[in-house]
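Design review, sub-item: ligand-bound model
Attendees: FS, YL, KQ
YL presented the inputs for the heme C complex:
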Amino acid sequence: MGDSSKPDQKTKPRRLWRKLVGFSLLGIAVLLVLIQLVPFGRDHSQPAVTKAAFFADPRARQIADDSCNDCHSNLTRWPWYTNVAPASWLVQQDVDEGRAGMNLSEWDKPQPSLDRVIEHIESGEMPPLKYKVMPNHAAARLSEADREILVGAFRVLYARQPPEAIKASDPDDD
Ligand code: HEC
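KQ shared the predicted structure:
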């Protein structure tokens, strides 16, 4: 009852709230613009293919291309969002770490053991979930049958074209 004499008592906090939200949104927008100036993540390097791991089975080749090559080869596709921070940073980190772990374009360099590759495919750990959830990576959501084809193709690859050296793998690093 006593409140009716002070009508602005309710509107004041609301106006303050709106101002706060406005400033926050502006702050976020400015931040998003500023982080675009960070140079990391935009060079999109495509180092030379020194020795390609070749899958004889065309279906396996397709599966590897759809689900592994973006991070584990020098033939990475860079969709538009890989130019926009912070997505560009996350993708760059995945590609750097992926290529360092196994590189299907540098089969003349040390690679993980066949067992390790099979383990990563069969467990469903690879391709990573964050990759599969992207709408443009629907083909990377492998079925059981796809996984079997890919595992079979890696077995043939390691038999016919074994990497020159097997990397000592750190058991903690998976
Ligand atoms: C989005 C990028 C991405 C995709 C796509 C991807 N990987 Fe990976 N992969 C990584 C990263 C990053 C690592 C290193 C960190 C880790 O193990 O999680 C890795 C690690 C690995 C390793 C372990 C390497 C080591 O250090 O011994 C294997 C094997 C592997 N991936 C196989 C695959 C296969 C096979 C596919 C396709 C079915 C695939 N990956 C798809 C990013 C990716």
